Amino acid sequence: MKQVSKRRRHNLALFILCLIYVFILGLFDNYFDHLNYVYFAILTLIFFFSILSIKDTKNKFLYLPLIMVTLTWVAEILDLPYLTEISIIASIIFFFYIIIFLVIRVASSKTVGPLEFLESINVYLLLGIAASLVFTLVYSTNHDAYNPPGEVLDSHTDFIYYSFVTMTTLGYGDITPNDSLARSLSIFFSVAGQLYLTMIIAMLVGKYLGQKTLNDMEK
Questions:
Q1: Any idea where the domains of the chain sit in the sequence?
Q2: Which residues of the chain have pLDDT under 50?
Q3: CATH class of 2-218
């Protein structure tokens, strides 16, 4: 029970940090010159709370975020493009690991409660953040990969916006993919976002109804 309580707290903290990263920081994009540092600070906290949310695993892969955070901050402060790309790749690998782990844990859970719903929401938010990093990486290697609404895509907000617009298949069309790799990745994340929503809802509802039926039978 104590372990579940810790998991709930860590996942709640991760949920709040993801909300700040995705929804709140973009509101200040035009008001602060060094908002990038705030993004990296929140992203660092997301790394660590992602670790805490799955800390019952003993996989040595979890040492990667410590190296990754160091690379990210050094690359940002010293403005080293190649090191920035390496840190983005490490971040993408890390987030997909967390996503896969949480999906497996929710799928293998025998009951459905607030914790399982919270973890499911965190997976979707982390998938959107991972997608934004993938799009950032593609754009950093090829500035013609996307048609921006202005002259350039120069903020975290642009890529976060594009990733969630793509995942939800909303498609406003103000930012569009311009080459084969960018288009393929956009298709992948649009399909992944829709498949995840339909599958996780079906799974949670099925588990909940089965749990309710079992409780009724026991009464």
A1: 2-218
A2: none
A3: mainly alpha
